[in-house]
Design brief:
Radius of gyration: 31 Å
Largest sheet: 5 strands, mixed
Shape: elongated
Helix content: 25-40%
Number of helices: 5
Mean pLDDT: 85
Low-confidence stretches: 196-203
Number of domains: 3
Structural class: alpha+beta
CATH superfamily of the largest domain: Ubiquitin-like 2 activating enzyme e1b. Chain:  B, domain 3
């Protein structure tokens, strides 16, 4: 039992005898206890720092002696001890948690839907894997491509060869993109670089 002093003391005595027999130095009661209980010094010291920080924050709140931490604290004890705090601000257009529409700029409305999907997968900013795309066209929610459901993928596969204009999209249209790399659907505002190339195709 690592918490029983008698057990630890017995193990320490036997360890010390063997260390003396083979001229091994550095065997101490604390070292033996650490080996038996799998104590990692970094974990215990980290817990102590966190406990001290939490206690300090409770004291601040209880006494109103000074402002509490504004959501982020760094502790560095590599060379001496150094700590500082700052408020981590939320990125308003964060891809993971923001619902603010993002601008998605493409060369023109003549690019194919497959090219748009390739752009979302290859661009370092998005790095998507197999995005599904829906859009509101003429007031109706339309699925342009959905790769994860076999029956829907088969029905929407032909859209991959169509241009954005042929699908009814124009500069300023909103598309909703869902992918396994993001926890929620991302809303994009399409922006065509070459406005002169945009020609709506009449059905």
């Amino acid at each position: 039992d690592g918490d029983d002093p008698n057990h630890i003391n017995w193990i320490y005595e036997k360890s010390f005898e063997r260390a003396s027999q083979f001229n091994i130095s550095g065997v101490t009661y604390r070292l033996v206890q650490g080996v038996v209980k799998n104590i990692i010094p970094a974990v215990s010291s980290t817990n102590a720092v966190i406990a001290a920080a939490c206690t300090t924050e409770v004291f601040k709140i209880a006494t109103s002696c000074c402002m509490p931490i504004n959501n982020y604290m760094v502790f560095n004890d590599v060379d001496g001890i150094y700590t500082y705090t700052y408020g981590a601000e939320k990125k308003e257009d964060c891809l993971a948690c923001s619902q603010v529409p993002k601008c998605l700029e493409v060369s023109s409305g003549e690019i194919k839907l497959q090219e748009l999907i390739d752009h979302l997968c290859e661009d370092a900013k998005y790095q998507m894997r197999s995005p599904g795309i829906t859009a509101i066209i003429n007031g109706k929610n339309r699925t342009l491509y959905l790769p994860h459901v076999a029956s829907i993928e088969e029905r929407t596969r032909e859209n991959l060869k169509k241009s954005l204009v042929e699908l009814g999209l124009k500069s300023g249209s909103e598309i909703m993109v869902a992918d396994q790399t993001t926890p929620s659907t991302i809303v994009f505002n399409l922006k065509f670089k070459c406005e002169s190339d945009i020609k709506m195709v009449e059905a």
